Every structure is written in structure tokens, then in C-alpha cells.
Amino acid sequence: MTGACADITERREAEESLRRSEERVRGIVESATDYAILMMSPERVVTSWSPGAVAAFGYTAEDMVGRSGDELFTPEDRAAGKPEAEAEEADHTGRASGGISARTVTSPSLQAR
């Protein structure tokens, strides 16, 4: 009889460490109400919307998740390519410095909601 036995202790420890880290990040994001924290897919679709984003923009996660993040920009900013520029910045640095503010939300499709 032959067989193989592998010690998976390190793998389980790494998975547990990752799980704890993700829980800490989730806790930070969910408790940060002074800053709008949102995540978007590479196609600029909103995938995560924090309580701070609710406070800053006035839209719930249900309003925004699954919608284009471009809708948060003014028509002028969209025409100037700002959503693309911020997405590129986020892709290279892991974050966008922010050209969006609650004052710039003018999308008729969002205002009608």
C-alpha cells in the first residue's frame, strides 16, 4: 500500500490569516462614515458602496451596486474623460485621488430614483 500525506497546517494558517485580514478591512470600511469608499470592477461598475458613500452621495448600496460609476460624474467631466482617468489612476496606484464630490452628482438617471 502506498500513499501520500501532506501537512496542510501552513495553508490553513494562511487562509485563517487572510480571513481575519478581510474581516478587519470590512470593519474599517463599514465604520468609515467621513469618507466615501467604493469599489468598481475594471468595467467601472460599482461593486461595493460604503456607509460613507451613502452619507456623501445620498444613494444607498442598493441604488449604486451594479450601476456604472461614471454616473457619479457630471456630463462635462464624463465628456472630458475623467471617469477613465480616475480608473487608470486606481489601476496603477490602487486608489483614485477623487474628482467626485457630492456636489457633482447630476446624473438624471440617479436623480430620478
Keywords for this entry:
113 residues, mainly alpha, Beta-Lactamase, two-stranded antiparallel sheet, 6 helices, 2 strands, 6% strand
CATH superfamily of the domain at 34-111: PAS domain
- Number of DSSP strands? 2
CATH topology category name of the domain at 34-111: Beta-Lactamase
Instruction: Quickly name the level 1 CATH class of the domain at 34-111.
Output: Alpha Beta
Distance between the termini: 67 Å
Q: Which structural class do you get from the secondary structure elements? A: mainly alpha
**For the largest beta sheet, what order do the strands appear in spatially?**
1-2
Main sheet makeup: 2 strands, antiparallel
Q: What's the architecture of the domain at 34-111, going by CATH?
A: 2-Layer Sandwich
Number of helical stretches of at least 4 residues = 6
> Roughly what percent helix?
40-55%
Overall mean pLDDT stands at 83
What does this structure look like?
By secondary structure, the chain is mainly alpha-helical. It has a domain at 34-111: PAS domain (Beta-Lactamase). The protein has 6 helices and 2 strands, in the order αββααααα. It has helices at 9-31, 51-57, 61-64, 75-79, 82-93, 108-111, and strands at 38-40, 46-49. The protein has a two-stranded antiparallel sheet with strand order 1-2. A hairpin with a 5-residue loop joins β1 (38-40) and β2. The longest helix has 23 residues, at 9-31. The N and C termini lie far apart (67 Å). Mean pLDDT is 83; it is low at 102-108.
